[in-house]
Amino acid sequence: MSEQSVAPVSPVPVPVPTPTPAFEPPYYAVVFASNRTDRDTDGYTHTAHRLSDLVRGIPGFLGEDSAHTPGGLAISVAYFRDLAGIEAWRRDPEHLAAKQRGRERWYEQYVIHIARVEHSHGFTRT
Known about the structure:
Strand 2 and strand 3 form a beta hairpin. 28% of the residues lie in helices and 29% in strands. It has 126 residues and is of the alpha+beta class. InterPro entries: Dimeric_a/b-barrel, Jasmonate_Hydroxylase-like. This is Antibiotic biosynthesis monooxygenase.
């Protein structure tokens, strides 16, 4: 009998990420594109999860999507009903502290684009 390694089957299915649904326009998209440094060990993952939880409490927040390329480009898009929600997020003390740590430790570069969404629709296979 051969010795083959079999990957364990998880008893709990891992959810597949899905795009944020389309909303009734107009609303706003904040696009954050970045390249990280190679210093991942000093709290980045914890901070990213904390900020993701925190932004959900901002009035006007609609949802977020993110993707990472094998080459190191990361893009996160946060959707807000209005500019007031974006401003509240921009001024949040924990977010401000994380931005500072990001500049000092985690990012080689980043860019932020804020766009008004004029049209939105989606498709889901049934």
